[in-house]
C-alpha cells in the first residue's frame, strides 16, 4: 500500500487527497461547494479591503500613537529595561519549561518581531534588536542549562526575573520626576494593565481560592462573597465604578485628593481578574485527593507547609490551561479602558479617524489593533498547550 | 500568676483556640473594613427618589415599549432593560446555533469545512469583543449606503446606515385567534396518534413512524384550517417613507445598525467559545460511541444527531450556561456604541443626576436577576436532559 | 463491653519496654454513626500488633485516631506518655513520633522520590539539605531502591511506590509506625517486596501497628492480634491463640472466611 502510494505521481496523489477530503460523498461535495463559495466571497472582500481600500498609511504615520500614544519621547528610556528583562525571562522560561517545537519558536519570534518592528519607530530599532538578542540568548542559554546541575537555579532565576518585571517597570516609571500616569497610552498601556492585572490578580486569586476552601466559616464566607459579588457585574461596570464611585471610598493619603484614574483602573483590573482566577484555582484545589493532605499531616507538616509544598503546586499545575485562558481574557479586556477615555491601543485606533487626514476612515487602524490584540492572545493560548506537566519540577 | 500564664500558653497552643482566634481576628478586620465602607457611604445620598424624576432624554432604540423624555428615569431604565433582554435572548439563540455548527464543523471529515471553522474560532475568540463590536459598527454597518442610496434585495429588504429593514410575518387580525385555537386543538389528536403508534411499535417491533404520523395529523388539520380560514399571517414588507426632514422605514422588521452590529459581534464571539465547548465534549466521548453507531449502520448525519450530540449535550450544559452568562454581561459593551442597553442608560442617568452608588447597585441586581434566570432555566434543561438519558 | 476479652499473655514475647501506646475507652462518632466503641488496649515498645476484621469494622478509624488524623470523641490516648489533645505542641510531637503508611501510598506526585523523603525532615526537623539527602539515600538503600531516587512516583511500580512511602515515613525517625492495609492496593507479585521491608523493620525493633489481612505474614511477625468488629475489639491475643483456639463466634466465622 505504502509503496503503491509513493509510486503514484504527484497530481494523482493530489487528486486522491481532494477526493478523500473534499468529495468523499454527495453530502460532502455539496458542503465543499457551499463553503468554497462562502470562503471565496469573504476572501475576496477581505483581500479587496486589505489590498485596495484600506488606508494603511493611517497606520503607518501613526505608529507612535498606537505604540505609546501621548507618552513623552524623552521618557522612553524608562520602558526599555523592563522590556529587556521581560524578553530575557520569556526566552529563558520557554527554553526551560516547554518542549522543543520549531513551530512555536517561529510563532513566538514572529509575533514579537511583528509587535515591535511595526510599532516602534526608526530610532528604536537598535533597542528592539537588543531585546530580541537578549531573548534569543536567554533561550539558547536555557536550553544548555536544562536538565543539568544548574537547571533549578536557572528556573529560579526565570521565576525571580518574571516577578521582578512589574516592580522594575513601576520603579522606573516613577523614579525621579516620574511619568504622570495620565500620559500613559497605546499598546504600552494595555501591556501595563495586563501585567498589573496578572501580577496582582494572580496572588489575590490564589488567596481567595484558599480562603474559599478554608475550614473557617467567616473566612470562607467573606471570600465567597467577594468572588460572587465581583462576578455578578460586567468589567465595564467595575471600570465605571472606578471612575464614579471609587474616589468616594478610597482613603486620601499623602495630600492626594484623589488616586488617579489609571491606578484606579489597575486596581479594578487586579480585583476583577482575582475573582475569576480564584474560581479557576478552586477547581484545581478540588482535584487534590484527600490523601495528599493526610500524608502531609501525618509527616508533621503544618497547615502552611502543606498548602505551599503539597497542595498549591499540584492544584495550579492541573489548571494551567484554564489559567492561561484567564490571562488571555484579561489581555483582551484591557481594551475596555477606552470607556474611561484612555488612549490605549483601541483608543488610539479610534482617535485616528478624528485626524484631518483620515476623517472617518478607521477601518485599517481598527484591523491593525485587532491584529495586535490577536497576535498576543493567540501566542499565549498556543503556548499554554505546550507547557510541560512537570512545571516546577525539582523544587530542591 | 504562674498558673495563669500557663493557662494562657495552653490556650494559645490549643488548635481550637487558635482557629477561634484567627476567625475573630479576621472578623474584626472585616468589620473594620465594612464599617469604613459604611461610614464612607453614609456621606453619600442613598435615596432612590431620583429615579422618579423625569428622564429628560430620549432613547434612540425602543422595542415593544415606547419612551418619551417626559417619563421617569425608572421608566427609561425599564425600557433599557427590555433592550438588553432582547439582545441577550436573540444573541443566546443565534450563538448556540453558530457555535454548534462551528463545533461540529471543526470535527468534519471535510478538510475545507474543518479548516474554515478552525480559522473562525481561532480568529474570533482571540480578538477583544469590544474591537469586534466597534469594527462591525463603524467599518461595516455605518459604511452602508445612506438611506437615499440604499441597497435593496428585490425591493423587500433594505440595507442602509439608518437601519436594516426586513420583511417580517405579521398576524392577520381577526382570524389569528381562531387559528391559534385550531392549532391547539390539532395537537390533541396528534399527541394520541403518536402515543398509540409508539406503543404499537414497541409491542410489535414494526416500524410505525410515530413522529411522522402525528406530524401528518397536525399538518392535515392545519391544512383544513387553511381552507376554511385562509392564511393566518401575512408577510409585511418594509417601505420607505419620506417626510419633510426625515426618511425612514415603515412596516416589516427594522433594526438599527447599533443593534445589528452588537448582535453580530456578540453572536460570533460567543459562538466561537461555544464551538470549542461543543468540540471538546464531542471529543471527550469514548471513541466506541462513533464506532458503535457506524456498526449499526447509521449515516454520518444520523450519527451526529442521534448518538453524538445528545450525549455531548449533557456534559456541555454547565459550560454552555457559563457562556450564556458571559454573553449577558458582555452585552453591556453596547454602551461603547451608544445602543441604549441598561448599562448605557444608567450611565446617562448618573451623568445627569449623580447617585452613582445607588444606580450601580440597581445595575448589579439587574444583572444578577438575569444571570439567575438563565442559570435556573439551564438547570431545568439539565434535569430534563439527564432524565431522558437515564 | 461484654464481648471484649483480654487473653492472658500466654507464649507472647514479653517485651521489656514501657507502654508506648495507651488507649482507654476511646469512642468515635461520624455524625450519628459510632465507628469506635469504647476501645481499650495497650501496646508496648517494640511490640508488633496486627489489626484485622471485616470491612467497615473501624480498623482504619482506629489507627487514624492514633496520630490524630481523626479526633476521638471520648476516652484517652497516650502516645509515649503524651496525651493526644487539641494542644498543637503535643500534636507536633506526636506527628514526628508516629509514622504512617497508607493503602494508596499518597506519595506527592509532583516531587521526586528523594524530595518526597527529604521534605518533612527539612521543613519540620530543620535538617540541613545535605544531611536530609544522605538520610534519604540510606533509607532508599534500606527499602532496596536507591537507584530510583530521582524519578517521580508515577514512574515507579506500585510495590516500589509503597516502599518509598515507608522510607518517607521512616525519614522522620518515628518511634511508632502505623500501616493501613499497605499491600491491598498492590498486585500479588509486588506484595512480597513490601512485606519483606516490613518484616525487616519489625525485626529491627520498631513498634508497629499493622492493619492487614496477609495472615501468613501476620502470624510470622506479630506479637499480638487485635480482631475488630463493629467498632470494638472483639478478641485480642497471640497469633497462636487465634490460629489454634479462637474464643468468639465472630472471630471463628471471620477466620474461616479469610483463611
Ligand atoms: N469520614 C467519614 N465519615 C463518615 N463515616 C465514616 C468516615 N470514615 C469512616 N466512616 C465509617 O466508619 C466505619 C468504619 O470505617 P473504617 O474505614 O475505619 O473501616 P475499616 O475497618 O478500615 O474498613 P476497610 O477494611 O474497608 O478499610 C465505616 O462504616 C465507614 O463507613
Ligand atoms: Mg480501612
Overview in brief:
The complex is a heterotrimer of chains A (396), B (390) and C (259). Helices cover 73% and strands 0% of the residues of chain A.
Short descriptors:
heterotrimer; A: 396 residues; mainly alpha; MetI-like fold; 0% strand; B: 390 residues; alpha+beta; four-stranded antiparallel β-sheet; two-stranded antiparallel sheet; 12 helices; 8 strands; globular; binds adenosine-5'-triphosphate; binds magnesium ion
Q: Please give the count of helices of chain B.
A: 12
| Rg for CA atoms of chain B | 29 Å
Tell me the CATH architecture of the largest domain in chain A: Orthogonal Bundle
Strand content of chain A: under 5%
Provide the β-strand percentage band of chain B.
Answer: 5-15%
**CATH topology title of the domain at 54-129 and 255-385 in chain B:** MetI-like fold
Number of strands of chain A: 0
- Note the run of SSEs of chain B as H and E: HHHHHEEEEHHEEEEHHHHH
Q: Tally the helices of chain A: what do you get?
A: 19
Assembly state (oligomeric): heterotrimer
Q: What's the helix and strand layout?
A:
The complex is a heterotrimer of chains A (396), B (390) and C (259).
Chain A: H1 2-7, H2 10-22, H3 26-53, H4 57-60, H5 63-68, H6 80-97, H7 102-119, H8 125-145, H9 151-174, H10 186-212, H11 217-232, H12 235-244, H13 246-249, H14 261-286, H15 290-298, H16 303-318, H17 320-333, H18 345-352, H19 363-384
Chain B: H1 2-13, H2 15-42, H3 73-106, H4 111-125, H5 129-141, E1 151-153, E2 157-159, E3 164-166, E4 168-171, H6 173-204, H7 210-229, E5 233-236, E6 239-242, E7 247-250, E8 253-255, H8 257-284, H9 287-295, H10 300-330, H11 342-353, H12 356-389
Antiparallel strand pairs in B: 1-2, 2-3, 3-8, 4-5, 6-7
Helix pairs in contact in B: 3-4, 3-8, 3-10, 3-11, 4-8, 5-8, 6-7, 8-10, 9-10, 10-12, 11-12
Chain C: E1 19-30, E2 33-44, E3 48-52, H1 59-66, E4 74-79, E5 82-83, H2 88-97, E6 98-101, H3 113-123, H4 129-142, H5 158-170, E7 176-180, H6 188-203, E8 207-211, H7 215-221, E9 224-229, E10 232-237, H8 239-244, H9 249-258
Parallel strand pairs in C: 3-8, 3-9, 6-7, 7-8
Antiparallel strand pairs in C: 1-2, 1-4, 4-5, 9-10
Helix pairs in contact in C: 3-4, 3-5, 4-5, 5-6
The complex binds adenosine-5'-triphosphate and magnesium ion.
Magnesium ion binds at residues 59-60, 180-181 of chain C.
